[in-house]
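Hey all, quick one. A colleague (J.T.) asked me to put the pantoate job into the tracker so the inputs and the structure tokens live in one place instead of scattered across chat threads. No bug as far as I know, just bookkeeping. Sequence used:
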Amino acid sequence: MKIAETFSDLSKHRLALSGEAALIPTMGALHEGHLALIRLAKSHAKHTIVSIFVNPTQFGPNEDFESYPRSRTKDLMQLEKVGVDIVFFPTTQEVYPNGIHEATRIYVPTIGHLYCGKSRPTFFEGVCSIVLRLFLITKPTHAVFGEKDFQQVTIIKKMITDLYLNIKIIQAPIVREDDGLAMSSRNQYLSEAERQLATEIYKALIKLQKTPQNSNIAAAIQKEVCELERNGIRVDYLSLVEEGSLRKITKPTPNSRVLFAGYIGKTRLIDNMPLTQTD
Ligand code: PAF
């Protein structure tokens, strides 16, 4: 396993790999969800490249950039064990040599300002700005993104199309804890009581998924919002959307999904679940 900290080292190691290579971009603090992305990548491509970079341009001024969990040694041990070809671990200076405010950015209209983009107005601009840099430097044939960040993977696919990038995006299913909570590096922020409360999110999504055909889904969503809020979860949004466009819809379709974001204490959690009906 090669570890690169600079773009030039990364390019050198990348050139030495022949054949298909999948990129798995991460912000570190790796957990089973990330390892599942890597395993999936390995089933699609001969080589795997994992990037670990806590990207400052996707955090807002009052968000958790400083406190975001960083665990370099543990991450490297896990990557060694699962087996990847290259780990890219750049510094902020390496990625944004002229500072984050002077760096060229990718603007994501409309879809980048819905849902998470409403509460985090520059989030997707920051995500696309780093992901495009990683694509250009690692030249992957494939890239793997988790479905937990459903809006993120949808926006990355749009960027691939809009910018004529020849990269196959692999969408990986959500990995959950035994009690249903979607795995996330931010789960570490939760106290024991908050961690317990967090399972309510999964329960709400499952209830919505089981809503009988032809019932009023808008009312069912509203009921779950009230329930979550009553339990102490501050709901940012709970919305039924059409996959692809992320257009808000009022009735399930064969391709619809319910998206959630909310806060438990100061911790922002997201999750989603397919909610489809075929009649
Ligand atoms: O999903 C994440 O961890 C990040 O948004 C990503 C894609 C690594 C970009 O920094």
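Adding what we noticed when we looked at it: Strands lie at 2-4, 21-26, 47-52, 86-88, 142-146, 168-172, 234-242, 256-264, 267-274. The first strand starts at residue 2 and ends at 4.
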